[in-house]
Amino acid sequence: MKRALLVFATLSTACCAAPAVQAADDGAPQTFITGPNAFSRQFIDAPEFRLMPVPGTTEFRADIRQGGKEWTVRSKTPVLNLKRVWKRMAAKKFTLRLCWTDAQGAVLREETSERVKAPDFGGFKETAADWGAAADRNIAYLIHESDHNTTAPYHEPGVPVWIWAATPSHEASYPCITINNVIWAFLAHVKNNGPQSADALRLARFSADWTLEHRQPDSGALPLFPYSTITKGSFGGSVEGESVNLLRASWFAISFVDLYAATGHEPYLAYARHIADTTVKFQNADGSFPYRVNPKTGAVTEQYNCSVMEFVELTEKLEKYGFDARRAMAAQRALEWALAYVCTTNNWKAAYEDVGETRFYTNLSQMPAQQLIRYLCRHKDEHPNYLPQAIRLNRWIEDQFVTFGPTNEASPVRVKGPLVFEQFVCWWPMDGHTANWILSLIELHKATGRRIYLDKARAAANAICAEQYGDGQFSTWGRDFETGESPAKGENWYNAGAFSDWALYSLAQYVKGLK
User: Nearest 5 degrees, angle CA 500-CA 474-CA 181?
Assistant: First the structure.
């Protein structure tokens, strides 16, 4: 989505014996915080900061200021946990000053940032909205918009607008995060016996068929692979250039398996298998996969990618139509890498098509963790640690990326909530990412039976519906809970609204099945 580096927490660096450290190329300041909280914008639970042990330091100190009140946390080791003072702090912004001091009390280094203690979930005490009806209205908007849009910079006659434009007037689109969401939304509409089921299925198939006609050449390192960026009538461009987001193709392919299940059209299944088998060839020795790859040469243009569950989930989907040992082994190795490395470090680095390379921890996102949560819930009986890990990951997402209401000072928009922020450098409460979270909450409720997960899903669905416009659009960027104002100015993303449709239909059907 449209990216703007939003300066929220400015870390200042000062060292009495050395010059100030310069900011890195990605614009993020240098920091001696070594863990994932280095650039976090909010916390619901008491945070812990792990620091680089600077030579000569005998004490590490956190000075916290909030509304005229001050607290201090001290440690002889380079770990500062704010748990001791957290309950005394209000759910508001606070200033955090981290200090490295020597035996004489002199400050060797300090870093100051502004963070937010965010409010937690307050329970679900309202009437459930008509989630299915809201999704029907957005489906109607998508169907109408498919061939009535007049503002897109490039619009191919007879082709749905979202093929070439991510929003009503965007110059680029991202097929591997758009076509699949549209397919899932339209299939969910059909499953829910929606009033425009015929048109929905037609457009789902048209979008898939168009993609089969417009893909990489049958040559090079990624033959017939989907493009992950298309711009102004051309393939590639924007941040990615000629490269593609390797694993996003697997997420895209999952929708082709689902479309095959609904239609029986063999080319959809064959293409999903082709994507999986091509992707396997790029697996690293540790089980991970590269992020961006040049489809012609196979050169890796960016390596680290924590979105391995996109491949794992594709492999699982394909197993219904025939077991393949090579795919299964690759998926298991990818899963084990995610559990061993990413879950241990929380290095859930954002992997979006329109974001350039960033240093570790400067730009985290919740999106890659959502699919792992759902997988672990579905497979909870296979390992005693799977469900506890899923629960922990969900709480990490809530702590770092969920705004539970309008009093959250971390949010640039006063939203009803709960809504989910996308990533550190695109810090907006978005409907599509909230939809992704709803799907995770449904799986957590299935796996645990705990009412709180269902209540959070209901509250999140209501929050999406509360931001719906009169023409059926959902708000990608959040709307003020009182005025309805939004920074979007009509630029809501088609794929985000489609994701919301899928989640709203899924929740409506799930709740109905519980009765």
Answer: 35
